[in-house]
Write a structure and sequence with these properties.
By secondary structure, this protein is an alpha/beta fold. It contains five helices and six strands; from the N terminus they run βαβααβββαβα. The two termini are 14 Å apart.
């Protein structure tokens, strides 16, 4: 069974900079949770920021092939992030964690791409049974 790295804030964990979450209540994500596929991580917390969380040294250990991360985050954004000027200017550059995961060979999706992520997961599962 393939597992999926998912931003902890999308799972309702209050790990964002302002101690809130960005819960995503999509049916695909709920199914993955029920199937035991989800591995939650907050890259900012894992990097030492203020909200306590266990270490997130998990990608290789669990054989993860895809991740669903919070779009727009300077760490997690897969389609865009912000330019670092604190002006709210978006740039078509992935966040630091998303870029590192992509470099490591993981497919990175945002919470807006759960259907695409699920299709990719189904293809992985089908290939694994061949």
């Amino acid at each position: 069974m393939h597992r999926i790295l998912v931003s902890a804030c999308l799972l309702g964990q209050a790990v964002r900079y302002n101690a809130t979450d960005k819960r995503c209540d999509d049916r695909v994500l709920r199914r993955w949770l029920a199937e035991g596929r989800v591995v939650a991580v907050c890259p900012e917390v894992a990097g030492g920021l203020s909200v306590p969380q266990p270490p997130a040294e998990i990608a290789d250990e669990h054989g993860i092939r895809l991740a669903v991360l919070k779009e727009g985050s300077p760490s997690c954004g897969s389609g865009y992030s912000y330019d670092g000027t604190f002006s709210g200017t978006r740039v078509a550059v992935p966040g630091v964690t998303a870029a590192r995961l992509q470099q490591a060979g993981l497919r990175v999706f945002s919470e807006l791409q759960l259907a695409e992520a699920d299709a990719y997961l189904c293809a992985l599962d089908a290939a694994a049974t061949d």
